[in-house]
Design goal:
541 residues; mainly beta; Nuclear Transport Factor 2, Chain: A; seven-stranded antiparallel β-sheet; six-stranded antiparallel β-sheet; 27 strands; 42% strand; binds copper (II) ion
Length: 541
């Protein structure tokens, strides 16, 4: 569901922030820049040095964000001589234990190394998933199960599936289940699930921990569902793909390192293995005041939770955390100009790590472009002044920062759209393919129990599920002291005919939330406006 952060100019006031864009002697430009290639290499060396001859698996490396006051003071000084500390946070597995290590890059040392013993495990590495997915192909019971179904092993593909936990007793700590699909000459594997075989892999031992061939269900035929390039339309010359956006004078935004300037906006954009896009220090220039006023300190996707609503043995624990388990940034794809970003886009690379700690480049994972779809931002035609026709129109041009993360069957398009009005529109669009379940039914008339989804083709259920995207949003609307305010419609009724011949009207009741729990809001049909304001700053009115 798209979230809107409505930032009213009325409430925006005084805040000066000057983003230094000159390159620094520190190898990076800005304290919120993600770790550079050489810094990631340095992290690997430092951690490896303190665990000589011990196997360390790297699951996440990212910037250990400096304290906010340090960053704010850094940007408020034009030519800072001292930078906030440059630190990395490293999540590793060492001897089957999860370590949270803070590395200080300036002193080349480890500041802290804590064993995490709470619930949950680190993000999976791509490498361990790949190794696990090969295990069944040399495992005799699995080979027999495939033969028993009359399928050919070389047409079977396997995917790692993380498992939700409902308090069951478990032998293995870090574990995944494997799910299988049957290609049989097609590429749309999700349409042909092989149902009924449960394989649990213990990741620390990298061994099959349990195997169960539970039931036999026909593999859906999935005829005509492959996603091939559409044939040219015979009926007409209609060309719907690849419309061009021309900017003969080039884009009007600038990208200096990771600092973006466009129209009245300036902000910092970066990549993180887990979160994907991170937007920082967004502020907008106020012409009347002649200064930048802050809007957002830091914003990113903190989790994407996808629970399936199926109670059966192979499905009940499909409750994916697409960011925390698979990495929203790690799952980012290389964006193609003219297809998923217009040709006037500029691209940014990211750096992630392999499980041995070696950094690898993720080319063109973020694109930035000016967006104009022929829409109107503001307009008015004034005819009331005798002898004059006044017409003013402002086209709706915005700046979009985009990433696409492909997590298994789903492709998430995540956008941050900066508007001239001072608002940032956050959008998540989902495309890709549904996760299907194979069943015995070929017609909905045969179904006499809850099948937890919709029969979309013969032997194929699209299973009910949600995608919950949670955003970490640290708004600094006109400074740090922000309040959350709800404005709701309230109907007033009266019977006093002397007051008005009318019987009712609606008015707006504003309420400032005192606690976080009070601020919990169920978005729905009830009309409500949600505001983040700096209550300490007053305008003239
Ligand atoms: Cu879905």
């Amino acid at each position: 569901m798209p979230l809107f952060f409505k930032i009213s100019h009325l409430f925006l006031l005084l805040f000066v922030s000057t983003l230094s864009s000159s390159s620094s002697p520190f190898g990076y430009n800005h304290p919120l820049d993600s770790l550079t290639l050489s810094e990631l290499t340095q992290v690997k060396t430092i951690v490896k040095k303190s665990y000589l001859l011990i196997n360390v698996t790297f699951h996440y490396v990212g910037l250990n964000e400096p304290e906010k006051p340090l960053v704010l003071s850094w940007i408020s000084i034009n030519h800072p001589t001292k930078n906030p500390p440059r630190e990395a946070i490293v999540i590793t597995q060492i001897d089957q234990k999860t370590h949270e290590i803070i590395v200080d890059l300036s002193s080349d040392s480890i500041l802290s190394d804590k064993i995490y013993d709470g619930h949950g495990y680190p993000m999976l590495t791509s490498q361990e998933q790949n190794v696990a997915e090969k295990l069944p192909f040399t495992y005799q019971p699995f080979i027999s199960s495939i033969e028993k179904r009359g399928l050919r092993l070389k047409e079977v593909v396997c995917q790692s599936s993380t498992v939700g936990w409902y308090g069951e007793k478990r032998k293995s700590n870090r574990m995944i289940k494997l799910i299988y699909y049957y290609l049989d000459g097609m590429v749309n594997l999700y349409m042909r699930p092989i149902e009924g075989i449960t394989i649990v892999v213990g990741l620390d031992q990298m061994k099959i921990a349990s195997y169960l061939d539970r039931l036999m269900v026909p593999v859906p035929k999935a005829d005509g569902t492959d996603y091939i390039e559409p044939k040219p339309r015979a009926r007409s010359n209609l060309q719907l793909d690849g419309k061009r956006i021309m900017q003969p004078d080039g884009p009007t935004f600038t990208l200096d390192g990771n600092a973006v300037r466009w129209a009245d906006w300036k902000f910092h954009v970066d990549y993180d293995m887990r979160a994907g896009i991170i937007i920082s220090l967004a502020s907008i220039f106020d012409d009347d005041k002649g200064e930048f006023r802050s809007v957002l300190y830091r914003g990113f996707i903190s989790e994407v939770f996808v629970p399936y609503m199926d109670l059966s043995e192979d499905w009940y624990d499909r409750t994916f955390f697409d960011a925390g388990e698979f990495g929203f940034g790690l799952s980012a794809v290389e964006l193609q100009a003219s297809k998923e970003c217009p040709e006037n886009a500029k691209f940014l690379d990211g750096y992630s790590i392999y499980q041995d700690g070696t950094p690898g480049k993720m080319p063109n994972v973020i694109c930035i472009f000016e967006h104009y779809a022929g829409d109107i931002m503001w307009r008015h035609t004034e005819l009331a002044i005798p002898g004059e026709v006044i017409e003013k129109v402002k086209p709706a041009v915005s700046l979009v920062v985009r990433m696409v993360s492909t997590v298994g069957n789903y492709d998430y398009i995540t956008d941050y759209e900066f508007k001239q009005s001072g608002s940032i529109k956050v959008t998540a669009s989902l495309t890709g393919i549904m996760e299907m379940k194979a069943v015995k039914y070929t017609n909905s008339d045969q179904i006499n129990q809850d099948v937890y989804g919709t029969l979309v083709a013969e032997n194929t259920i699209a299973v009910n599920h949600d995608h919950f995207l949670t955003y970490h949003i640290d708004l600094d609307v006109d400074g740090r002291n922000n309040s959350f305010l709800k404005a709701k419609q309230k109907t007033e009724r009266f019977k006093d005919k002397k007051m008005s011949p009318r019987k009712s009207y609606w008015t707006v009741v504003k309420q400032t939330m005192k606690t976080e729990s009070e601020g919990r809001t169920q978005l729905g049909l009830e009309p409500a406006e949600l505001w983040f304001v700096n209550a300490e700053k007053k305008t003239k009115v």
